[in-house]
Amino acid sequence: MAGKGTPATALLAKREVAHEVHAYDHDPRAESFGLEAAEALGQPPERVFKTLVAEVDGKLVVGVVPVTGQLDLKALAAAVGGKKAKMAEVAAAERATGYVAGGISPLGQKKRLPVVIDSSATGFDTIYCSAGRRGLEIELAAADLVRLLDAVLADIAG
Description:
By secondary structure, the protein is of the alpha/beta class. 25% of the residues lie in helices and 27% in strands. GO terms for molecular function: aminoacyl-tRNA deacylase activity; lyase activity.
């Protein structure tokens, strides 16, 4: 895999946040990129998180949930003080984050969007999330992810 650097890994390096980058051979036929990552890395899927972009009251918001769960849109809206939420259009998510769907990282996005991380993340010493490319994951402490993103912790996984 040529050039492992992404805006997410660059941000972590710049901020001197302890992390590890894990690469694996991504299969474009995989039905779930998140479950594929967990299996390829030999990690329990509840420790691997996916980044989803939703629209809350017309504004884009990022939800980070375990790959085994779904994003509870009602809970996400409540976590950011909103009323109504729906999944964002893929093109809007890609435009705002600068990443391709299936490889959206919560870190290093083009536009700084509000982020809500499922509170289950705090149950692990480290968690995995996308490094900004399919087949590339970052392992870091959940507390560091929350701090870097100024994220809200809430029960948003359904």
